[in-house]
Amino acid sequence: MPLIHECVVTTLSPEGRPHIAPLGLIEEHGYWIAAPFRPSSTLLNLTHTPKLTASFTDDARIFAGLVTGCRNWPLTDIEGWPAPRLSAALAHAELIVARVEEHELRPRFFCKVRRIESHRAFLGMNRARAAVLEAAILATRLDMLPREKIESELAYLQIAVDKTAGQAEREAWDMVRAKIDAHMNDVKAGVAQ
Ligand SMILES: Cc1cc2nc3c(=O)[nH]c(=O)nc-3n(C[C@H](O)[C@H](O)[C@H](O)COP(=O)(O)O)c2cc1C
Questions:
Q1: Where are the domains of the chain?
Q2: Which residue among 25, 27, 40 is best mutated to probe the pocket of ligand 1, counting the most ligand atoms within 8 A of its Cβ?
Q3: What is the CA(22)–ligand 1 centre distance, in A?
Q4: CATH code for 3-118?
Q5: Distance between CA atoms of residues 21 and 6, nearest Å
Q6: Is residue 132 a contact partner of residue 174, using CB atoms and an 8 Å limit?
Q7: Which of 5, 160, 184, 189 is the most exposed, fewest CB within 10 Å of its CB?
Q8: Mind listing the pLDDT tens digit for each residue in 64-98?
Q9: Is this prediction's pTM over 0.90?
């Protein structure tokens, strides 16, 4: 399996407005591949403007916020490039779509890296941040996963949060948990599946 870079991608709407979404970029054979599911704004935007910016951040609250409806994270313009980066990015990459592999569910946009720039120091891996990332992905797939799997994964991820989270990671975890807990309560009450 190829390496996947979990990042926040900026694309441009047909009107030129920046749109941010968490996305895993697949690094394979010299390309970085964006594979957004249909339907999504990221997919629509890439079809109009085949350029994107990948922001690499260690702030788990941004991933948590984006999957729970909080989208107004500050952006910074990039000179000579249309899609802004997250202001909080430790580094960003500017990507140009070189070709598209069509698919009815999940087309693949094969991109070439134009430039990578660093902005702040990366101060090491952290288990709680990784746990928030996993929970954020779970939170985008709640309707596809059985209740038992969601509960057992959350219980496991909670251990890393309890042992290694700082304030920001606890806030991020609580945001994602609140969304997942609300879904689980709906399921129990028979509102969702
Ligand atoms: C860490 C992370 C990685 C994700 N990677 C993908 C991905 O590769 N493809 C995808 O379609 N959605 C992915 N998602 C879910 C999207 O962010 C989510 O569906 C989002 O709403 C995109 O839709 P939008 O472009 O309409 O905003 C990921 C979510 C997270 C938290």
A1: 3-118, 127-189
A2: 40
A3: 5
A4: 2.30.110.10
A5: 11
A6: no
A7: 189
A8: 999 999 999 999 999 999 999 999 999 999 999 99
A9: yes
